[in-house]
Fold this protein.
Amino acid sequence: MGSWDYYCALCGSTFQGERFVSRKPRTARYLWRKQREADFDALVAADPLNGRIDFRRFNEETAAGEDNLDNESLSSQDEDDTYDCSIISKEDATWSNNLQCLGVNSDYPFRSNAFLSDIGCDDEFGAVSAEPGSDSSAPDDLDDYKAYDQNENYPLFPFHPKCFQLLQQTVAFQRGFQIKAKSLLDGDWELNVPGGDFDKDVLYRVFRNLQSDAQLDISYGEPELPHDQYWLANPGEELFIADPGKRNPHAMNAIDDMWREIHSPKSGLEPDITGICNLNLKLMDDPFAHFPLELLLIIISALQPRSLLNLMQASPHIRRGLSRTSFSYWKRRFETDLPWFYEVHSFLQGIPSPASFDARELPGKSLSHFFAWAYHTTTPRWGLHGPFMGIANRRRIWEACNQLVGPYLALVKPEDRNTEVEEDGQFHSDKS
Ligand SMILES: [Zn+2]
């Protein structure tokens, strides 16, 4: 049996992202073949019994289409097993090569014996290549430790340092601290994350309870992780190695552009960008129109973003009502429903006079559209590329980390659940 890969406990992704980025952009031949594969799937879908499909002719056309295409750049095998360098650069994938571990030193004579390793990289057969770190409980070396080893009493749990910082932000958010998005984006991602307030022993117990073969037993969201004995770098899944903590000026510009578009005189009420169809003509009697306002507010406030958007799609009454809701309402929903979208928070905080954006003063324009756009644009999915890829990966990791927060907070001492973070103002309590 050969070696195997193990994956980040927090995002489920590889520790070797950089080496999967292709050396050259996709060849025309590769793109042609992908197009023909899609065409073939469409043909089969339209004729499931294959009665009218001329397979021979289809294959001949596919081959003929390659005659004048560039066949030089890469072999088909290389292209199939790499991420497209025109979608993600090696430089943008370097963060994923860093590894840090949480472990337990059973030889340490005190009760608190969990330790956080220095940053290193992965190795074969479950080993890690990293120094044990500066915690007093750290062992002399990690030579006898293995990641996720089911036969060991104290396996290591590896993760990307950036994912660990996201876990800290997730825990802080759930404790009631509000993320100061602008300082996080403007400053150094690592320095701006509150450190030292994690109970490593408790966190280790949470990891241990969720241990699986090469990852944790939690949902890592969409797309499905390409786990096998080794990581499978499938084209279209560049999202998995997109940096979740890097400020992307193109994303900031795109947010600004969308804001202007929504508030331009040409913008209509029908939110075509949200995928919400116009049901006004089909729905003769909207049952929500008969609900008391107080009850509607309770329902709406309890809904997750996806459900809220679905309800807006189903009910013109709700849609009209929410399109007239104030700036401060939607700003709050951004903070509570899309807490990981630091770029939008920073953008909204930078608007000079929020009161002037009360939607009631802007007939035909709606912040609900902006919310729906933000939600859909950052939804992790196959084929995603462009400036929001890293933010979508951050959202995916945030939602994975969120599954650990409940078990973690349930195990920490009550007085630690709402500890103020004595930092440089990265987080502050809502109550302060
Ligand atoms: Zn990770």
Summary: Confidence is low (pLDDT under 50) at residues 269-281, 419-432. The chain is about 40% helix and 5% strand.
